[in-house]
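Let us practice reading a record.
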Amino acid sequence: MAVEKLSVSLPDIVAARARRAADRAGVPLSAWLAQAAEAAADLAEAQAAAQEYAARFGEPDPAELTQIRAQLAEVGVGSPESPEEASARADALARLLGLPNERRAG
């Protein structure tokens, strides 16, 4: 996996919270930030796709919205992640990043 090294600036409180969250997840800060950035990018892309769809086809009517929400709930979108799922995801990310076993979550 190719990695691009970046320099970012964060407000002190945000950096401290991110470090604590990474520590709780048992992953390096860079891995936690990559995961957070990916989640934010996924959300931004989904919002853009929804706006593009609405611009092209119009807003869904209430019945369509109900059906869409049911389909999303069926596949778990919007459901909280269990501790087991979070641990498995963090471990998979650590494996992908090639981290030693002692640095992996779980």
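A brief commentary: The chain has a mean pLDDT of 86.
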